[in-house]
Amino acid sequence: TLFQAGSISKPVAAIAALKLVEAGRLDLDANVNSYLKGWKVPDNVFTADKKVTLRGLLTHTAGLTVHGFPGYAKGEAVPSLTQILDSVRPANTSAIRVDTVPGAKWRYSGGGYVVMQKMLEDVTGKKFDALAKETVLAPLGMTHSTYAQPLPAAMRKSAATPYDAEGVPVDGGAHTYPEMTAAGLWSTASDLARYAIGVQQAAAGKPGAVLNKATTEAMLKRGGLGKWGLGPELGGGDARPWFGHGGVDEGFVANLTAYNDGEGVAVMTNGMGGMRLANDIRASIAREYGWPDFAPKDRKAVTVAADASKRHVGAYRLGPYSVMRVTQDGTRLFATNIEGVKYELFAASDDLWFRADANMDYRFETRRLMVTSDGGAEVARPRLSDAEAAQVVAALSARVKAQKPQAGAEAALRKSIAGLASGDPDYAIYNEAMAAVTRRQLPALKNLIAGLGPLKSIAFVKVQPDGMDVYKVRFANGDSDWRIVLEDGGKISAIGF
């Protein structure tokens, strides 16, 4: 079955560029404008002393804008590469420009890979899908893969249907991604595995490998600014490093991880919630094969008396519109959230329980539940009577029916985004739990939000079944959907994008 690979397109496309480097047709450290024809990277104050290079494009250190691409739905006009580069209609993303000194910082840039696509096409005189088939896909035996956009009619019968976050098929089917090097690869899990094996063989210096050993070592060498090589993301310890990439296109989510010395996993899904599944599959494989990374943590469960577990049965308020109900079956406890998802809790002691599918601890007290998530701070969740729980459920039902945003939610969202982008958020706008999460994730969030560029607009979309407001947020370099809910006092109880 064919799936869109999303950003896994990038490390696969990188091989095409590195093949040209090996052939002496490209230089990793030369000014890309010396290869580009017709369109050039516009010079400005940031490029006065440092120029954009292929090495910078591959490692996300070229100082270029535009994080990712939403693609083009069925029936929409599809722009040319130069229209995408300059944000000329019908392009739906911002112009790809240098806004920091090349080589000064790491910032993920799908836009940089579009510049690379233009450069490869200009140097070879071939469309990238044809070039990739000749230099990468065919040599690696990836016979079920293509960069052709849209997907050729002969291959459509093998393609999965994409689904959105609500489990609804994407209207019109798969989007078209003319940004082939950044997001345009159609592939199968087996073909992605063939790519990984090809890189592993090249790293081992096998005769006839897709790249020579020296080039592959350079591709898999960790740079000083980020955890990216010449195309793939890099990780693991010195004893056993790995390479890989995640990928998201509209309705498709995929993940690829492979150790340099062998073994790996490729998972492709056709739903916007697919990364959780992909990560769980990877965790199971990591445990089975004894990988040094990705395996779930072991927890020891104990058996408790039935009366010890019975006293925890009841309802607990997790958020403004969220109730968790704890029920008993013999000595076993089960928790069910407001959306009806049920999972088992396991006892570490009479009062301390945990989830096996998530790094969460539940410490039961007489009038409240103390919840710890991912090693963060303990957060108190009050115990509710049946009548109080019913009131929360009724309030949620009314919110979903009314489909009106919470008062103050948009202002809180704007303030949160501004604080994250600056790296100096006002933690007073969050409740205790969200403040702790924000502090822990701030370095990554600052880098990501700042990379999206200035905020352009915010528009309310809907109220989700869990009571969170959804907003479409447009930045200069990309769009994203944000979810937010405020507690009674106006503080942010939960926020995500």
Characterization of the model:
The protein is α+β, with helices and mostly antiparallel strands and 497 residues long. Helix content is 30%, strand content 22%. The strands form 4 sheets. The chain has an 8-stranded antiparallel barrel. The chain has a 4-stranded antiparallel beta sheet with strand order 3-4-5-6, sandwiched between helices. It is globular. The model has no long low-confidence stretch (mean pLDDT 93).
What tags apply to this protein structure?
single chain, 497 residues, alpha+beta, four-stranded antiparallel β-sheet, 13 helices
Please write out the topology:
Elements (H helix, E strand, L loop, with lengths): L2 E2 L4 H14 L31 H6 L21 H6 L23 H15 L3 H10 L42 H4 L2 E2 L1 H15 L9 H7 L13 E4 L4 E9 L2 E8 L4 E6 L4 H16 L16 H5 L3 E6 L2 E8 L2 E5 L5 E6 L4 E4 L4 E5 L3 E6 L5 E6 L1 H17 L6 H14 L9 H20 L3 E9 L5 E7 L2 E9 L5 E5 L1
Antiparallel strand pairs: 1-2, 3-4, 4-5, 5-6, 7-8, 7-14, 8-9, 9-10, 10-11, 11-12, 12-13, 13-14, 15-16, 16-17, 17-18
Using the CA coordinates, give the radius of gyration: 25 Å
Number of strands: 18
SS element count, helices: 13
End-to-end distance, in Å?
Answer: 29 Å
**Class from helix and strand fractions:** alpha+beta
The largest sheet, given as strand count, sense and whether it forms a barrel, is:
8 strands, antiparallel, barrel
- Average pLDDT confidence is 93
Share of helical residues: 25-40%
So what's the overall shape? globular
- Segments where pLDDT lies below 50 for 5+ residues? none
Percentage beta strand: 15-25%
| Strand order across the largest sheet | 7-8-9-10-11-12-13-14
